[in-house]
Design a protein that fits this description.
Blueprint (H helix, E strand, L loop, with lengths): L1 H29 L8 E3 L2 H9 L3 E7 L4 E6 L6 E6 L7 H7 L3 E5 L3 H34 L11 H4 L9 E4 H4 L10 H15 L1 H7 L6 E5 L6 H12 L2 E6 L10 H16 L2 E6 L2 H4 L10 H16 L6 E7 L17 E4 L5 H12 L10 H6 L6 H17 L7 H13 L10 H19 L7 E5 L10 E4 L10 H22 L7 H16 L13 E5 L3 E6 L3 H28 L1 H14 L1 E3 H9 L14
Parallel strand pairs: 1-4, 2-5, 7-10, 7-11, 8-9, 9-10
Antiparallel strand pairs: 2-3, 3-4, 6-8, 12-13, 12-16, 14-15
Helix pairs in contact: 1-4, 7-8, 7-9, 10-12, 13-15, 15-16, 17-18, 17-21, 18-19, 18-20, 19-20
The chain binds adenosine-5'-diphosphate, magnesium ion and zinc ion.
Length: 631
């Protein structure tokens, strides 16, 4: 490595030297007079005077730039002068002859000059740029290690970096992450605790003859803290942490990925006890199949990984952690005992978990006193740890934008909206009629939600367009979390989703495209009720679909015959239509309140759940009989 460095530095110097020499050579041929050591500039009158005094020996007129170069004296005492030619001096040549000066005129050869000029004025800068570029390129390559992604076809085998892994080596303590930095996820931490104590003290385990798990697989949706947990394990145990992405193993050349795996384990063996963390392992660990389009390189890499995991000496304390959000695609061989036999679920945080995560990240920013993070946690069901960290950060950014020194509750609430629905979009200007339609649409959702027994209370209605494309939204916040959804609740949810379109139909007698997202969600829910939850009367408790990916969403795959698929569609349609009709009925019964609230909303653009409920329940003869809240 050092040798190479020196070599590089030397050749760089050489390069610069050549550039300088080239520059000098070119400029010398272009301006030969530079060679003369001293040229004195004189005025034209002085020149004439010197001619008159018979001092001038040789005169050289350059018609190119209208300069006169002349010399006085001879041999040793020769002196060079230069002056600018007086225009239209017709008498000069006569005068020179009279005084015995040797006159000569140079008419510049512009064609040759042009080339030289071009060379000097363009070539040189290009040379310099090339030099700088070459130098930067070197530095970049160095920074990325010999094995950087810039490796070209030839270099793949030439450089010393063949098959060198680019596992980033981070000392655990240096990452500074410990279990304290991971909020919630208590079960995951508990499972990992054993690995921590093994890494701290491998001898204790080997003495008794116990084998600690070689590998553990962290599975869960994106952003739930899998990477963070792996780092925390290294931090807790104070061991070296090798992190590499699964995709980094998959190379262009068959065999290179496998070499990387070998090298990674070799490095780890030297640094043991340590943790090898393979992030997004599904990139390399995908199930090997027998299809023709199999990927040789990936399979070789996977095979190498499998045999390394069997082979390494666990007494020294090497633990391989891996993370994925698509565990169902992993090769079975990876999951057998002795490899990633421990599966540690890292799920989306619950209410308490969300509040704890918010708290951890809130500690990093300056906040006003009396901030209620519980409200934020309640209004973000389904948010991952990364989402919550993002909410805190957005709030801090907003505070700075507003010129405040501390984050307020309002910043936090607004940033929840931003994370859920996108930034407010100032450029979208709705026409008054469109605004009215959106107002009725959102109020429709809200009223249907409010009139149901088990629905979460409405906390906010807004008709400010968002960058996500939403023209408004109605937010419902659960008082507390529940983990089961009954069939009635699911049906109610569909009705709420249909409330927007129902209001449009009822009031304007027309349909708009504004309901597309509602329709998507309602259909998804209805389909899941039929195919996954066994909630349809027709099919009962039969699984008709399989979730395509448990952690990444993406709907389900049907596992039924074609005929059944048709019937499922009909069933789904019926469920959604039922919700639609129920929404229409609710809104018809409360159309006066619908008018009033929609107009109020249109004026205010954003109203709170409280304002909404005040108008809805105000006893003016139209107040609906509110359902008693569910226990
Ligand atoms: P994953 O690897 O599961 O996709 P990460 O570990 O990369 O997710 O998490 C992304 C970020 O989200 C973290 O850097 C952290 O700021 C935040 N985060 C996620 N989960 C938690 C948690 N349980 N506690 C604190 N912060 C979290
Ligand atoms: Mg990750
Ligand atoms: Zn809607």
């Amino acid at each position: 490595m050092d040798m190479n460095d020196n070599k590089r530095r030397r050749s760089m110097l050489l390069y610069i030297l050549i550039a300088i020499v080239a520059y000098l050579a070119i400029s010398q041929t272009l301006y030969p007079n530079l060679r003369a050591t001293q040229i004195e500039q004189v005025t034209y009158s002085q020149f004439l005077e010197m001619v008159d005094n018979d001092q001038v020996e040789k005169v050289d007129l350059n018609t190119g730039d209208n300069t006169l170069q002349f010399t006085t004296g001879e041999g040793e005492s020769e002196k060079h002068y230069e002056t600018t030619m007086w225009p239209y001096d017709d008498t000069l040549i006569q005068r020179l002859e009279e005084h015995g000066a040797d006159a000569n005129a140079t008419i510049p050869d512009t064609s040759g000059d042009l080339w030289l000029m071009l060379l000097v004025s363009y070539g040189l800068p290009i040379l310099v740029f090339l030099g700088i570029g070459w130098w930067l390129n070197r530095r970049m390559k160095k920074a990325m290690g010999d094995d950087g992604p810039s490796m070209n076809f030839g270099g793949g085998f030439g450089g010393g970096g063949l098959g060198k892994s680019n596992a980033k080596e981070i000392k655990g303590e240096e990452t500074g992450v410990t279990f304290k930095d991971v909020a919630g996820q208590d079960e995951a931490k508990e499972s990992l605790q054993e690995i921590v104590s093994f890494l701290k003290n491998p001898d204790k385990y080997t003495e008794i003859g116990a084998r600690c798990p070689r590998g553990a697989l962290l599975v869960g949706p994106p952003g739930t803290g899998k990477t963070l947990l792996a780092k925390a394990v290294a931090g807790e145990a104070g061991v070296t942490f090798f992190q590499i992405a699964g995709s980094a193993f998959v190379e262009m050349f068959v065999g290179r990925g496998a070499a990387k795996v070998r090298d990674l384990f070799k490095q780890a063996n030297e640094k043991a006890p340590c943790i090898i963390f393979i992030d997004e392992i599904d990139a390399v660990g995908k199930r090997r199949d027998t299809s023709l389009s199999s990927n040789d390189e990936r399979e070789q890499t996977l095979n190498q990984l499998l045999s390394e995991m069997d082979g390494f000496d666990n007494h020294k304390g090497i633990v391989v952690l891996a993370a994925t959000n698509r565990p169902e695609t992993l090769d079975q061989a990876l999951l057998r005992p002795g490899r990633f036999d421990r599966r540690i679920p890292v799920e989306l945080p619950d209410l308490a978990g969300r509040e704890a995560i918010l708290k951890i990240h809130a500690d990093d920013v300056k906040m006003e006193s009396g901030i209620d993070l519980g409200v934020i946690a309640r209004s973000t069901p389904g948010a991952s740890g990364a989402d919550l960290a993002n909410i805190i950060n957005e709030a801090a950014l907003r505070a700075v934008r507003m010129g405040r020194r501390r984050v307020t509750q309002e910043d936090l609430l607004e940033s929840v909206d931003v994370v859920i629905a996108g930034e407010k979009k100032k450029s979208t200007v709705l026409s008054p009629h469109e605004k009215e339609v959106v107002s009725y649409h959102e109020t429709g959702h809200a009223i249907v939600a409010a009139m149901q027994k088990g629905s979460a209370p409405v906390s906010k209605i807004t008709i400010v367009p968002r960058t996500s494309g939403a023209l408004g939204f109605t937010m419902q916040v659960e008082e507390d979390e529940h983990f089961l959804t009954t069939r009635q609740e699911a049906k109610d949810k569909i009705a709420v989703l249909c409330g927007g379109r129902a209001a449009e139909e009822l009031i304007f007698g027309e349909m708009t495209t504004g309901a597309s997202n509602d329709i998507e969600k309602a259909t998804q829910l209805a389909r899941a009720m039929v195919t996954q939850y066994g909630m349809s009367d027709k099919f009962g408790m039969v699984q008709l679909g399989q979730p395509a990916s448990r952690y990444l969403g993406g709907g389900s795959q049907l596992t039924c015959s074609e005929g059944t698929a048709q019937e499922i569609d009909a069933e789904v349609q019926a469920l959604v239509e039922e919700g639609h009709q129920s929404a229409l009925t609710t809104l018809r019964e409360n159309r006066f309140k619908l008018h009033e609230i929609a107009h109020y909303l249109q004026r205010k653009e954003t109203i709170t759940g409280e304002e909404f409920m005040n108008i809805l329940t105000r006893d003016d003869g139209f107040a609906p009989k509110m359902p008693t809240p569910a226990e």
